[in-house]
Design brief:
globular
Length: about 250
């Protein structure tokens, strides 16, 4: 982790470059980071409430809050997976720790989420949810999702250097993970056989933490918060250790 601090200025420039390139030819520019999640939420809310008739209070806010954290995870890990290979030419010219490119991918996804928090807070206000003390704790699940994204991103980025098939495999896994995680539906509709999976699913716990703090003004118990945080740290540590163990072999596989 020390190397990320030592290369913090490069990291900042990589994140800035990524955002500029992404919105360079767009009329709305950075506003798309706020508009896109809203449009996605509106379409999905209309479809799922009419087809499945979910009985979830403040469902638009429930859906959007889940989608924002999911986009951080899915977008961050997907870009991180290709970040080491896409930066191979730069790495051949000057030494840059490959973890910096993974961190930049996650940082860019995190900034996009921060932009999207503006319409989310406006939406919950329109729905009659007033600011509350629990909102002070919203950064915690956000940062933990970012850390989870970084850990998973490190693991799959190292695999992608050696196995090109991981890109297609991860796409399938990510789609399955999305539908298995209560992002667009309430956990109450799941059968008992899947509840065990959710008990060990850090994304579910972090999304639920964020939603309860934002909409219901509730916080998880200390035990639940510690267990969830511990699981995230374990995954991030495993991702970091596997990445550092394989990174010395990266130059021979570009």
């Amino acid at each position: 982790m020390i190397e990320l601090y030592e290369y913090r200025y490069l990291l900042r420039n990589l994140i800035s470059r990524d955002l500029k390139v992404r919105y360079k030819r767009s009329v709305l520019g950075f506003l798309w980071a706020m508009v896109n999640p809203l449009l996605t939420m509106a379409v999905m809310a209309a479809v799922f409430t009419s087809l499945f008739r979910f009985r979830v209070p403040n469902y638009p806010a429930y859906l959007l809050s889940g989608l924002l954290l999911w986009r951080l995870f899915s977008g961050g890990t997907t870009v991180a997976m290709a970040s080491v290979l896409s930066s191979a030419d730069l790495s051949k010219k000057v030494f840059v720790p490959p973890s910096v490119f993974v961190a930049a991918s996650v940082g860019s996804a995190l900034l996009n989420l921060l932009f999207a928090l503006v319409p989310l807070l406006l939406l919950v206000t329109i729905l009659g949810v007033s600011p509350r003390f629990s909102w002070l704790f919203l950064p915690i699940p956000i940062l933990e999702v970012a850390l989870l994204t970084f850990g998973v991103g490190l693991a799959i980025a190292s695999l992608a250097v050696f196995f090109a098939d991981i890109v297609d495999i991860y796409e399938v896994i990510l789609s399955a993970f999305f539908y298995l995680t209560p992002i667009i539906y309430p956990i109450a509709i799941l059968p008992d056989t899947l509840l065990t999976f959710e008990a060990f699913n850090p994304m579910y716990h972090l999304v639920d933490w964020f939603r309860r703090a934002l909409i219901d003004g509730q916080l998880p118990s200390v035990v639940d918060a510690i267990l969830t945080s511990f699981g995230v740290v374990v995954i991030a540590t495993l991702g970091w250790s596997s990445f550092t163990r394989l990174s010395d072999r990266f130059p021979y596989s570009y």
